[in-house]
Design a protein that fits this description.
Elements lengths: L2 H21 L7 H13 L15 H22 L13 H25 L4 H11 L31 H16 L1 H12 L3 H37 L7 H4 L4 H16 L3 H15 L5 H30 L7 H24 L13 H9 L5 H13 L5 H28 L10
Helix pairs in contact: 1-2, 2-12, 2-16, 3-6, 3-11, 3-12, 3-15, 4-5, 4-6, 4-13, 5-7, 5-15, 6-11, 6-14, 7-8, 8-10, 8-11, 10-11, 13-14, 13-16, 15-16
C-alpha cells in the first residue's frame, strides 16, 4: 500500500469512527469494538516500506500517545461526575472505595499468583501484568460510564448520576484506579532491578504507595480549585474565562495539573482527575462545564481512533503471532473470573443499603463487577515499565496484554447495552 493510499484508508476509517457511535447504539456492539476490528482488517493490507508496528521497537511512541489519551479521558471523567466529593458525601462513593481498595489489590494479587505459579511467568513480569491489567480503562469504557456533566437548573435536576449507581461506580473507579496502579508498576520494576523486597519495600511503601498518591491528589486539587476560582469568580471580570465561554480551559487545566503534579513528584494521572473534580466543584451547575467536557470528548475520540486502529493493525501483523495458551488463559481468567469475582466480593461484603446513595441492588453489583473494561491504560503502563527496566520476554507481555484488551473490548462491548437495559431504570441512561 502506497503512502497516498494510507491517507485514503485513514480518511475512510475516520468517517467510520464518526458514524460508529450512532450506528451501534441500539445493537450489541460498541464503537471501540468496531474501530479495533477495522484496524485488524487494515492490518491485513500491505504496509508502506519502513512502517513498523512492533510495540517494543516503538515503545516511546506508544507510551506518549497512550499517556495523552489517558490524561484526556481522566480530565473528561473529572468534569463529568455530578456527584460532589466532600466530608458530607464521601459515603455515597462507597462503590468506588470498595472497587479501589479491595477489588483492585485482589485483582493484582490474583494475576500475579496465576502468572507466577500456573503460567510460569517470572515474578517481576507477573507482578507487572497485574499492575497493567488491574485498572479499568477511562478511555474505552464510555458505553458504561456517565454521559457527561448535567448543568443548570436545580441541584436535583443536575445530578442524574445520583440515580445511576452502576455508571457512577464504573466512571469514578476508572478515574482513580489508573493513577493507583502506578505503585504496583514501580514494585514490579524494583523487583526486576533491585532484587529482594526487603531491599526496597519500606521506601516503596512510604513514597510510591503513600507519598506520591497524596501529592498527586493534593497538587491536582489545588490547581483545579485555583483555576476554578479564577475562571468563575475572579474579581476582574476579564479573567472570568467561563463568562467568555472558552472551553480550552479544560485543556489548559489538564496540562497544567499534570505538569505541576509531576514536577512536585506526585502521580500526574491522579492530579489530572483531582483537578477535574476540583474545577467542577467551584461552580458545579455552570453551563461552561458541559462546553469543556465536549472539547475534551472530541480530543478523546480522535485519540481513540488513532490508538485502536493502530492496535488492531499491530494485532494482525505482529501481536497475535505471540499469543499462546498462557495469554489465552490469562485473558479469559481476568475477564470472566478474576475481575468479576474480586469486584463482586468488594461490593457485596457489608454492602451499603441500596436505598441510599452509593448503595447497589444485587443485580447492579453483578453488572458493576463484570464491566471492568481493559484498554489504553494497560498499554501505557507496559510501555512505561519497559522504558525503565529490561523486561523478560517483553514481546510476549505485549501479546498477552493486547489479546486481553481485544477480548475485553469484544465481550464488554457486546454485553454492555443489553446488560444495562435490564437493570432498574435508575441505572439506565442509554448512550
Amino acid at each position: 500500500m502506497s503512502a497516498d493510499a494510507v491517507w485514503l484508508v485513514a480518511g475512510l476509517a475516520l468517517f467510520v469512527a464518526v458514524l460508529a457511535p450512532v450506528l451501534v447504539r441500539s445493537i450489541a456492539l460498541s464503537a471501540p469494538m468496531v474501530l479495533l476490528l477495522l484496524g485488524m482488517l487494515i492490518g491485513l493490507l500491505p504496509m508502506p516500506d519502513g512502517w513498523s508496528l512492533d510495540p517494543v521497537a516503538g515503545r516511546k511512541v506508544v507510551e506518549h500517545v497512550t499517556e495523552v489519551a489517558v490524561l484526556v479521558a481522566l480530565m473528561g471523567v473529572g468534569l463529568a461526575l455530578d456527584r460532589p466529593l466532600s466530608r458530607d458525601t464521601w459515603r455515597s462513593w462507597s462503590p468506588t472505595w470498595r472497587l479501589l481498595l479491595v477489588a483492585m489489590p485482589l485483582t493484582i494479587a490474583a494475576i500475579f499468583v496465576l502468572g507466577w505459579t500456573v503460567l510460569g511467568v517470572a515474578a517481576p513480569a507477573a507482578l507487572l501484568l497485574g499492575a497493567c491489567l488491574a485498572p479499568t480503562d477511562p478511555v474505552l469504557a464510555g458505553d458504561v460510564q456517565v454521559d457527561g456533566p448535567s448543568t443548570g437548573g436545580s441541584a436535583e435536576e443536575a445530578e442524574p448520576d445520583e440515580r445511576n449507581e452502576v455508571r457512577f461506580a464504573l466512571t469514578s473507579e476508572a478515574g482513580l484506579n489508573d493513577g493507583l496502579a502506578f505503585p504496583f508498576v514501580y514494585a514490579a520494576v524494583f523487583l526486576a532491578s533491585r532484587g529482594s523486597v526487603s531491599e526496597w519495600g519500606a521506601g516503596w511503601l512510604a513514597w510510591e504507595l503513600v507519598g506520591k498518591i497524596l501529592l498527586g491528589v493534593l497538587v491536582g486539587a489545588l490547581v483545579g480549585w485555583g483555576l476554578g476560582r479564577l475562571a468563575f469568580r475572579a474579581a476582574d471580570h476579564r479573567l472570568r474565562i467561563a463568562e467568555r465561554g472558552e472551553p480550552l480551559l479544560a485543556v489548559a487545566a489538564l496540562v497544567l495539573s499534570y505538569g505541576a503534579t509531576e514536577v512536585a513528584g506526585g502521580y500526574g494521572f491522579l492530579g489530572v482527575f483531582a483537578c477535574g473534580l476540583a474545577l467542577r466543584s467551584v461552580e458545579r451547575h455552570h453551563d461552561h462545564h458541559r462546553a469543556m467536557h465536549q472539547v475534551v470528548g472530541y480530543l478523546e475520540r480522535l485519540l481513540i481512533l488513532v490508538i485502536l486502529l493502530f492496535l488492531g493493525m499491530a494485532l494482525t501483523r505482529t501481536l497475535l503471532g505471540g499469543v499462546d495458551w498462557r495469554a489465552v488463559v490469562l485473558a479469559f481468567a481476568l475477564v470472566f473470573v478474576i475481575r468479576p469475582l474480586a469486584a463482586w466480593v468488594s461490593l457485596s461484603v457489608a454492602a451499603r443499603d441500596p436505598e441510599r446513595p452509593g448503595g447497589l441492588q444485587p443485580a447492579e453489583r453483578l453488572v458493576a463487577a463484570f464491566f471492568g473494561v481493559r484498554g489504553v491504560g494497560s498499554l501505557y503502563y507496559l510501555a512505561y515499565a519497559g522504558g525503565l527496566v529490561a523486561l523478560p520476554d517483553e514481546q510476549w507481555l505485549w501479546s498477552a496484554v493486547a489479546f486481553t484488551i481485544l477480548l475485553s473490548v469484544v465481550v464488554h462491548g457486546a454485553a454492555s447495552t443489553p446488560a444495562l437495559r435490564r437493570l432498574d431504570p435508575r441505572s439506565v441512561q442509554p448512550g
